[in-house]
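Box 3.1. Reading complex inputs
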Amino acid sequence: MAERRDHTYKIIELVGSSPDGVDTAIRNAMERAGETIKNIDWFEVREIRGAMNEGEIGWFQVKLGVGFRVLDPADLTDD
Amino acid sequence: MAERRDHTYKIIELVGSSPDGVDTAIRNAMERAGETIKNIDWFEVREIRGAMNEGEIGWFQVKLGVGFRVLDPADLTDD
Amino acid sequence: MAERRDHTYKIIELVGSSPDGVDTAIRNAMERAGETIKNIDWFEVREIRGAMNEGEIGWFQVKLGVGFRVLDPADLTDD
Amino acid sequence: MAERRDHTYKIIELVGSSPDGVDTAIRNAMERAGETIKNIDWFEVREIRGAMNEGEIGWFQVKLGVGFRVLDPADLTDD
Amino acid sequence: MAERRDHTYKIIELVGSSPDGVDTAIRNAMERAGETIKNIDWFEVREIRGAMNEGEIGWFQVKLGVGFRVLDPADLTDD
Amino acid sequence: MAERRDHTYKIIELVGSSPDGVDTAIRNAMERAGETIKNIDWFEVREIRGAMNEGEIGWFQVKLGVGFRVLDPADLTDD
Amino acid sequence: MAERRDHTYKIIELVGSSPDGVDTAIRNAMERAGETIKNIDWFEVREIRGAMNEGEIGWFQVKLGVGFRVLDPADLTDD
Amino acid sequence: MAERRDHTYKIIELVGSSPDGVDTAIRNAMERAGETIKNIDWFEVREIRGAMNEGEIGWFQVKLGVGFRVLDPADLTDD
Amino acid sequence: MAERRDHTYKIIELVGSSPDGVDTAIRNAMERAGETIKNIDWFEVREIRGAMNEGEIGWFQVKLGVGFRVLDPADLTDD
Amino acid sequence: MAERRDHTYKIIELVGSSPDGVDTAIRNAMERAGETIKNIDWFEVREIRGAMNEGEIGWFQVKLGVGFRVLDPADLTDD
Amino acid sequence: MAERRDHTYKIIELVGSSPDGVDTAIRNAMERAGETIKNIDWFEVREIRGAMNEGEIGWFQVKLGVGFRVLDPADLTDD
Amino acid sequence: MAERRDHTYKIIELVGSSPDGVDTAIRNAMERAGETIKNIDWFEVREIRGAMNEGEIGWFQVKLGVGFRVLDPADLTDD
């Protein structure tokens, strides 16, 4: 049973940004997430938008669900 | 690159309530969120419901995505 | 007003797993959540998937929104 | 078992209208529903529209699911 | 206020069928609805399906929301 | 033509509940519906939620569309 | 590059109406659109509704996205 | 036939804003639209968001589809 | 158990076309499907679009899910 | 490059049935699929319905996307 | 009030194309839009498709909502 | 009529993968599909996800609907 409960995942929602494109916006968010969350398993793209800046695309913005395994109770409440 | 990573946002999901209406339910949730999150940028309404109480509308309930900029790694894990 | 703000809820997104079926996957996630979150009110099923393992269903996986009342500001930022 | 079956709810779909705004349109529909249905528990907003009248907003129109507990079989067939 | 409450509408969900096509399936359902509901205002198509019968299309099936004005409380509970 | 009109179906929306799981919640709602509606053909699951009760899952709640054939005009207005 | 930019399309949203049925409602909207837009490529059905008139279907109403190639900048701003 | 073609509607998409709430944001957009479009019939709410400004809700933002009857061909291309 | 497994259905996705309208586009796809699949049970309309051809509607295009019973394993892999 | 192309997956859509419940309906479909497809990785639940039979639930019906790795070109065209 | 009405935005729907990929398709549409619309604020990706050409991807096609501030009434009717 | 039936299309659902980004994941799936399906016309992006691998994005995964013309009955059953 303990093992089964270890297969609980939490998903947080992030928006990554980049002036370069969709892939880099995703990579920037995942790099940021990886600094404090160690056991990320997957991401899901939920929305792609962008903000203009002086007539150019200033930022591609990608909303992501970021899923990671909950290893101990503190993971659940801190992330 | 550091700057780009600063343009990472996190979205948390809240439900605000009010007996007065939709706007106040939103305001109550945002006021609550603002007490502990300092750099909130936007909200998105995801669902509007309500609960009856003795034949009257007891609570308007508005589910919100609340987005804020992640300024340092602790922001990511604590909110 | 204080009372109204107490009717703010937060929803976190979890994925529960079980080799036994949908109900147990939900129960495993809720049991896990209940260890650190004391005032959970409801859950909403958002997705049902599964992973195969050697030709058998290894895991039923149920994505849940888990809602709980925010009692003090720390609840908001820690969960 | 009898008790469990008492936790059956029925949802009817109404559209409330008001020239004043979204909240009043909801209140008007719920007031109307409450005249004949005694045990309403909740509502869900499903659509918000409006009709113009001579260049002004004539009616805000809110489509609602209205949920109430089914207490005896006649409730099921009459509402 | 009484007038405003008269602008409450109820929507019931019907499926009309026809071997001839989508339009006739809609017409059959609306003709049926019109026999007992006098003040129908609009319909919304929610789903189009069909059933095969011996290698031919046996029935086009169109799920409709059918909206009508609630004129007196009995309308609300009887339809 | 009469025959075609007999292939009109009505769908009502119910929520079934059970502390045991999704299947039983569906069965409870369908058993309840079957007491007063004689010619039910199918159901469609529209939402799965649950309510907690003292840290346990108190109720699995399944929102269902319940479809049945309209045999005479009274069926249309009474269910 | 000039050629690529010529492969920009604009989509406008129309509602076509007809007392005869879905196909004619679509045809009426497209005929209307074709009077002023010369290079229409495709349409997408987004909603099918209808309005009753004295107990009969008065109008089938079909909401369409209508896509056409943008050939010069004026096309973009005028349609 | 000419008459039928007159029952063609166009829908444009606007976002209205207000610091006061959802209703006023809708009213502001409709007032703006009414200055140049004379025959508006209805609006549909498509999204509700908001922007924060110094810890307060700066703007409620409501995305609307605004529908109006196309009376002559110029209406189609100019709006 | 063998019998239950016989109640497995497969759904393939087709797009039927016709210059005549939605119904004929559906019929053309189902006629085509019926040439090689013997036990089709139902279809579900998933999208309705159309392609223009020299200012006229060249093709109504209807995307369909086509469901049929899987009678032996080869049905599963060949269709 | 060859390796990357090996990470192509195909998803087929099945409906599994069972008189016993949602889990068994899923298991029946996956058991059937596993007889002819050797490398299934995951499934996604897309719809849950049911058919009544003499006043009882005759069949729970679960529509599934079933994903498997495409190992050689024949896999792509045969499943 | 005048200021509030200036915070009205219009969204037009474009499809950008490119043989190179999703980002360039977006950039091509936004470059085209920027030639005639001066105050574009944001875009929202609504659909990603592609057209094959002789066995290769001929065009990535991205449907966008393009939002810009309405500064004077002519902006509303001309774009 | 024969010609019309030739305008039947089939859509299969694939997931393409790449460590490089969204565009390459699409290209890998389409290249794979093109090896055995000769007359592919278009693709539709249905989902974008990704899998992490040792703290890096291991695979961008793009779910696609891939549409191709059905030229003879064997195409229908083999793909």
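In summary: Helices of chain F lie at 2-6, 22-36, 73-78.
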